[in-house]
Amino acid sequence: MNDSMSIPHLIMNASLIVQLVMLLLLAASIASWIIIFQRSIALRRAEKSYRDFEDRFWSGVDLNELYRDLPAEQESLGAEHVFRSGFREFNRLMPKTQSTDAVLEGVQRGQRVALSREEDRLQLHLTFLATVASASPYIGLFGTVWGIMGSFQSLSMAQQATLSTVAPWIAEALVATAMGLFAAIPAVIFYNRLSAHAGRLLGKYENFAEEFHAILHRNLQGRSEREAS
Amino acid sequence: MAKRERRVGYGWPVLLAIGVHIATLMLTIIKWPESEPDPTSSSVVQAALVRAETATDQPQQTEDSAPPASQPEEEDAQEPEESAPAESSEEPAPDSDAEVTDSAVEEAKAEAQRLQEEAQRAAEKRRQAEAEAEKRRQAEAEAEKRRQAEAEAEKRRQAEAAAEKKRQAEAERKRQEEAEAEKKRQAEAAAEKKRQAEAEAERKRQAEAAAEKKRQAEAEAERKRQQALAERAAQANNSSLDSMISDEEQSIANAKQASEAANGFKNLVRRYVEQSWNVPSNASSELRAIVRIQLLPTGELVSATITQSSGNSAFDHSVISAVEKAAPFREMRELDASVRGRFREFNLDFNPEDIR
């Protein structure tokens, strides 16, 4: 291989539109990798904090105490957020109404809001990954087709078309497709992986919400029976 | 602390993403130039390695050979010491003195033999090590030679490839030259053919002109004969048979006259056209154009089109304009109806030679 066929040389010699396509693909690739790393770290931390919280929750601690221990601001995330919003609703409704159904309904509503917020947070930016995964091969293909068009136009000027006159042009054009695939493949893989991870975490949150709801229901049931007796 | 952990910033992800891209870029960049100076760099490195090994081997060998040489001396020195305590320990038993001394001597001998054997073994080992080192050195030298041969072969192959390429380029050039020569030859052949065709046409035209002249002469002779016949008929006016014959002959003469008139009309047209023809100054005698002329029965020009172009558009244009200028041909009305039909459409051949 001579120097004129090296990849940087090919990129520098490409036509303006092909270079723009390559630049776009490079930007998409960098952005998708940023999201891949950010989401991976965030999801791993969310899973870890969920496990810690679950341990604390099932360790037999008093729920009031647990509620007081948790950070009071809106900062709480994940299962803590679900627990906090449910328990806050429970505490607010208890003095106001005697109806168990009303209290439980309020708790459920608060938990549902918290869950949808959590879902939103977990799947943040994942749609961008999906977009890169599906669009960048086409963008790369566009660059290639444009480059090959240019190569054939310049080929028509040439007296004789040997392989050595065609090859550099086509190699240059194919770099765009290679870059498109380079951006798309990690995006596809990590989109599937991360969205599965987020879905799993969300399922755990929902299970926790149901369990918490069951605990509250049991307590209320006991209280109403005591009051009735 | 728990809060800080939960919020994931974008600083690290950005750094990692850029790192990933730089790493892949490095892979693509580094891979390419590496393949090129591969043979030179490897040979340099290997040569240095070989020298380093030989340099370190020799001191090791001298060190190896030094201890065995000193060891026997030491053991020799130790020998008397060892035998002296043996004697001293055996002094309390003077009865067996001779035996003891004998055994001591034997022991000393055995000891000496053992030492000798050891020395021999050590020498043997040393020799083997040397042989091995020698073998290793030879193997290395061979490997080096092989590597150099390979590098040379590689160089030769490259040179051959270059020569091959040059030969191909030369062959290509030759082929192009041949193609050009071929083209030229074809062009020459075409020119030759054209010239021959022209010569042929010229000959035909001359033959036509000769035939025309002959025909005119014949017509003249015929007319003279007819005049003579008419005179004779007038002289022998009383004979009805004669008059019948003369009638017949007159009709024949009329037909002849008609054909003559037709020829005359064609010549007339040609003359008119030639008179109004402005031959372009650059027109050579090789140029030749055939014009198809269509006329009305009154002699008006309907159309004049080039059926065989001369190849020179200025020449063609001048021909067309000459015909248009020469029209109308009023003589057409004087022709017989049968003859006139023939001249509704005819071709005219233009050649500058006709005029000059």
Structure description:
The complex is a heterodimer of chains A (229) and B (356). Chain A has 7 helices and no strands. With 229 residues, chain A is mostly helical. The mean pLDDT of chain A is 86. Chain A has helices at 7-13, 16-57, 63-69, 78-96, 100-122, 126-157, 163-228. Chain A is rod-shaped and about 105 Å long. Chain A has one domain (3-228). Among the domains of chain B are: 45-75 and 112-158; 194-354, Fusion Protein Consisting Of Minor Coat Protein, Glycine Rich Linker, Tola, And A His Tag, Chain: A, Domain 2, CATH 3.30.1150. Chain B is rod-shaped and about 195 Å long. Chain B is 78% helix and 6% strand. In chain B, a hairpin with a 5-residue loop joins strand 1 and strand 2 (301-308). Chain B has 7 helices and 3 strands, in the order H-H-H-H-H-E-E-H-H-E. Chain B has 356 residues and is mainly alpha-helical. In chain B, helix 3 packs antiparallel against helix 4 and helix 5 packs across helix 6 (313-326). In chain B, strands 2-1-3 form a 3-stranded antiparallel sheet, with helices on one face. The interface between A and B is medium-sized, with 25 and 21 residues.
Give a quick precis of the structure.
Chain A is mainly alpha-helical and 229 residues long.
